[in-house]
Amino acid sequence: MTDSFAVGFAVNKANWDERAVLHAASPDYDFARYAADPAHLSGVVRFDRPRLGDLTGLRAVHLQCHIGTDTVSLSRLGASVTGLDFSGAALAEARRFAAAAGASIDFHEANVHDAVEVLGAERFDLVYTGIGALCWLPSAARWASVVAGLLKPGGRLFIREGHPMLGTLDENDPPVPRYSYFEHAEPLVFDDPGTYVTVDRPLEHSVTHSWNHSLGEIITALLDHGLAVTGFTEHDSVPWNALPGQMVLDEATGEWRLKDTPSRLAASYTLQAVKAG
């Protein structure tokens, strides 16, 4: 790891270890609903259900799986799922949650950069990355090399992520581009005691290090590592209130979009790519 990422890794791990316990107790994650309803899916997976297709019998890995709601949802769609995250606290919550939800999932604690070493090369039919993951990694190329290493020939990457254009905006009204659209060596450093769901106290480990990556850098990295892009859709919504005071919640989908002309902003995207077979 680079020095800046090594520092960021430690800072972010402290932040996400603390978030994990708070998130697991949050009504927005609603752990109890999964136990009560065996067909219930996370909002992120439900949003992309038509694009995910039939997962029956596929061996899947969910990178940066956090507390496991998307991981369990993929399992409920028929995949045999492995989850990987760098936060031991998050995985403790994920294991507890999966057991309560009746899902058999193999969880591993590791930095995503070590995923091939930890899980094995070319083992998976599907690599899944949910929203809010890539910004914690400094290099799209290094991430793409991990994806390529995990996938079997003919295997598929599926990612839903916040749009890098959204990542450039500050929270002014109206928002203006303030941060780099393109990948940058040094991280963006934020100190924010809040998080994206309702929790019962502010974070003590409130500092985070993050990186933006342009769409061109992400797609080029995948192409350079032998994956062909097979699907790409931009959306005017995200599953969290990314610009407080300027977005409204669609109760039907659980997604947030600009309240004034949402077509002005590509807020997230779904990308699929297949490894050469």
UniProtKB/TrEMBL annotation:
SUPFAM superfamilies membership: S-adenosyl-L-methionine-dependent methyltransferases (SSF53335)
Example GO molecular function: methyltransferase activity
Location of the Methyltransferase type domain: 62-157
Keyword Transferase: yes
Listed InterPro entries: Methyltransf_12, SAM-dependent_MTases_sf
Entry-linked CDD domains: AdoMet_MTases
Pfam families linked: Methyltransf_12
Transferase is among the record's keywords: yes
Keyword field: Methyltransferase, Transferase
Listed GO biological process terms: methylation
Descriptive protein name: Methyltransferase domain-containing protein
Organism: Amycolatopsis balhimycina DSM 5908
